[in-house]
Design a protein that fits this description.
Quinone Oxidoreductase, Chain A, domain 1, Rossmann fold, 11 helices, globular
């Protein structure tokens, strides 16, 4: 049995197409999921346009933000049954004996391989998932929303885990993409005053961020950063997909403040880090997530404290993947969601 899949087949720009692939065969500790919905991530777009900075195992089915129903269980899988509603973490392959994995930080295992670049992802009808990656989804949370648990976890880790934001902090988020808007929403949940910064072309996305109680800023955020006491913002979340925004972050952060960098940018930065030293600023990278973060995020979504509906720009079938990708690429929507044909 074969199904259509959105496949990234080569390292050149535009090398994504719909192909028929065989139904995966699962191992003893895997489950087979019937995919309900898949979120399109900025990394999917970067692989499509070939401006990514991570190794890809071509050809590979795209998609790592997904949920669905269990339709088959491996012989050693316990605690799950066919029909269960689940979402999946992204760490498809890890070394369980790696020191990072043994601490529960398997997201930082150097041998980790994720869905959509290291192994086949979920932009198809069925996907093979290690049972250790699964989390239950309450019946009242639609898969169109639940499939966005993954980017919400990225934002949680950047803001709470690595940003250490406290009530009353002034926080600036650079970049109003999916992760940036979710970081802003998360910082608001932490009780911070939040501004989110973009370009003129980002007006639509900035207006969506405004729905989360954030102050939208086009261009220079210096005035907002200095409003309280002239020293700068407590924390900068750099969620832009370019390297140059780190300089903006250093300029806007207050002495003894913090920068949490979650956005990827493959180009050299080309400027001095001396101001970082002079200000005694902590620069913290933030990558991925782990099991307890997923459990917290599902609880936040299930309780209604975190509503992802404002960022969902539409749902397209897999054979309309190019439309969904272009809508995000051109900034017409914040997040595109796909579903099986």
């Amino acid at each position: 049995m074969s199904s259509p899949a959105v496949v990234n087949f080569a390292p050149t720009s535009g090398s994504v197409e719909l192909r028929e692939i065989a139904r995966p065969e699962i191992g003893d500790e895997d489950v087979l999921l019937a995919v309900a919905n898949v979120g399109v991530c900025g990394s999917d777009l970067h692989q499509w346009t070939a401006d990514h900075s991570w190794p890809v195992n071509y050809p590979v089915v795209l998609g790592h933000e997904f949920g669905g129903h269990i339709v088959e269980l491996g012989s050693r899988v316990t605690g799950w049954k066919e029909g269960d509603r689940v979402v999946s973490e992204t760490a498809a392959v890890i070394d369980t004996n790696n020191p990072m994995s043994r601490q529960g930080l398997y997201n930082l295992d150097p041998t980790r391989k994720g869905f959509g670049y290291g192994v086949n992802g979920a932009m198809t009808k069925y996907v093979k998932v290690p049972a250790r990656c699964l989390h239950r989804v309450p019946d009242h949370v639609p898969f169109e929303q639940a499939c966005l648990t993954e980017p919400c976890c990225v934002a949680f880790n950047a803001v709470v885990g690595n940003g250490h934001i406290k009530p009353g902090d002034r926080v600036i988020v650079l970049g109003p993409g999916t992760i940036g808007i979710l970081c802003a929403a998360m910082a608001r949940l932490c009780g911070a005053e939040v501004a989110i910064v973009g370009l003129e072309a980002d007006k639509g996305r900035l207006n969506i961020a405004k729905q989360y109680g954030c102050t939208p800023i086009i261009g220079d955020a210096t005035q907002w950063a200095m409003e309280r006491d002239g020293l700068g913002a407590d924390t900068i979340i750099d969620a832009a997909g370019v390297s140059a925004t780190l300089k903006v972050a250093i300029d806007l952060v207050r002495p003894n403040g913090r920068i949490s960098k979650v956005g990827w940018g493959k180009n050299p930065i080309g400027f001095s880090l001396d101001p970082l030293v002079q200000k005694n600023v902590a620069l913290q990278g933030s990558f991925s997530h782990n099991w307890p973060i997923w459990e917290r995020l599902i609880a936040l979504m299930a309780s209604g404290q975190l509503d992802v509906r404002p960022i969902i720009g539409g749902v397209w079938a897999f054979d309309e993947w190019e439309t969904a990708f272009n809508k995000m690429h051109h900034g017409d929507v914040v997040k595109s969601v796909l579903k099986p044909i």
